[in-house]
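User: Here's a chain of 264 residues. Predict its fold as tokens.
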Amino acid sequence: MSETTLTTDRRPLTFEPVRVGPGTTYLTLLRWQLAQIGGMLPLLVVVQALMAAGIIVGFGFLIPDIDAPTALFLSTGAPTVLLMTVGLVMVPQGVARARTDGTFTYMRALPVARPLVLLADLTVWMIVSVPSVAVAVLVAQLRYDLSLSLHWPLLVGASLLVVLTATSVGYAIAVTLPPMLAQLISQVLVFFVLLFSPITFPTTQLPGWFQGVHDVLPVRPAADLLRAGLASGTYDVVLRDLVVLLVWCAVGLTLSTRALVRRG
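Assistant: Prediction complete.
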């Protein structure tokens, strides 16, 4: 009876790592972020749309016998209120909760490029906030019978820049400060944007020193850029406003990215 010799290849098994492109990684992170929000995403969009209508109509009640120029100024400033509220209030609160429940730590532990994590998160907030701009414009036209002269390239570009600036600054606040302090500051910023920022009222109604403060803060420049995109026949673009927004956007993105890549 012949013997059969069995030979076994004992070489260790090796697995080639699967290389995933940044585009695929970004889309995967975006889907994960959207899944985290789940059914709340449509609700957030609806709430923002209702806020858009409420600001246009409600602020009009505060001004009896509102004239056409005032209505135009109010209506073209309302989208900025909405975008700034999302970026400076909702984003810090959401990120602060993520830091508290461990989601933020989990995202930082993923073997992906940290800027892609930030980009996916900011995209979600853009999805939430941008539709409110269209609602605000529509409600303003119906409520005050306005004739807006839309400059589409400027309007789209300004809207994206304002959203990116507001959300990146809000994100930076949330990741560089303790969660409780970040939430407290976001509550203070609500009143600052609504009551003390020249968005729905002219800058000339503020004291001179406060006007100078708003020249270097992103709120008034954001409002003026969006206003020029909505009523290009009435309001002009000022290069200084664009520079201020770009600087704040760069600072917010830099601080946010550094917080994501920092160990510990």
